[in-house]
Amino acid sequence: AVHNLTEANHIMHDPALTPLGENQCLTLRSNFPDHSSVKLLVCSPLRRTIQTTMMAFEPETSRGVPCIALAELQETSDLPCDTGSKVAEISNDFKDQVIDFGLVPEDWNSKLGKWEASHYAIDARCHAARKWLKNRDEDVVVVVAHGGLLHYLTQDWMDSDKFPGKDDLQLDRALSKIPLNIDGSPAVGTGWENTEFRTYRFVDADDDDSIPMQETTESYQRRKHTVIPLTKEEKTQLRETATKMWQEQGYEKASKA
């Protein structure tokens, strides 16, 4: 989206996709292998994710697959670029699209209370989203959300170190280890590339009330990762490292506990 062109654009409220972003959506539409199997579309109510859903999954909407906007899927930070529009405004902007905004409350974009940008609140929102998704009757669901949020939702923190901490920025930039925006600022991101798709399944775990998800072997191999899954301890360590860096960068607030 437009806010990714330069770090200065993070002050833009609920930005739209760029022409490049739109082309990436069309590429995703062409590369996604399971259009015919999808029974439900679920997206973050931010403008860029709605646009992505409507463009990349047009084959689904054209055959009547329902699309639900879920407030819990909004991006994690409280920067203007990650803050959504009023329900009336965003629903009017997409009035020609069949999107159900019934699960988006009026205060969803307040970034206060359950919607705040803290580790604790994000965790709670993603737990609620996993519970909601698991309780759906549809067996194949597409979720369109944001890189930071997806680490929390899937509880998969691999490659989250693509988001460098403040102490790493100058060195990494000098060594050309991270890409730069057009203004020279670091183009930091999460472990998810733009319009990347992965496949997860819910797993039964009697001793884990977090409603865990597991990436499928095919999806894991597509990303050229080893098929050896991370241990619970390794996942926890990655999570702690990532959230600490995001707090240092100002993309997330410290937990209230």
Shape: globular
**Biggest pleated sheet:** 3 strands, parallel
Oligomer: single chain
Give me the strand/helix succession. HEHHEHHEHHEEHH
Q: Measure the end-to-end span.
A: 33 Å
- Total helices: the number is 9
Radius of gyration: 18 Å
Give start-end ranges of low-pLDDT stretches.
1-9, 163-188
Report the structural category.
Answer: mainly alpha
Structure description:
By secondary structure, this protein is mainly α. The chain is 36% helix and 7% strand. The protein has nine helices and five strands, in the order αβααβααβααββαα. The protein has helices at 19-31, 47-56, 58-62, 87-93, 119-134, 147-154, 166-174, 217-222, 232-249, and strands at 40-43, 67-69, 141-144, 200-202, 213-215. The strands form two sheets. The chain has a three-stranded parallel beta sheet with strand order 2-1-3. A two-stranded antiparallel ribbon has the order 4-5. α1 crosses α2 and α5 (119-134) packs across α6. Mean pLDDT is 82; it is low at 1-9 and 163-188.
What characteristics describe this protein?
three-stranded parallel sheet, disordered N terminus, 257 residues, single chain, 36% helix, mainly alpha, 5 strands
Overview in brief:
With 257 residues, the protein is mainly alpha-helical. It contains nine helices and five strands.
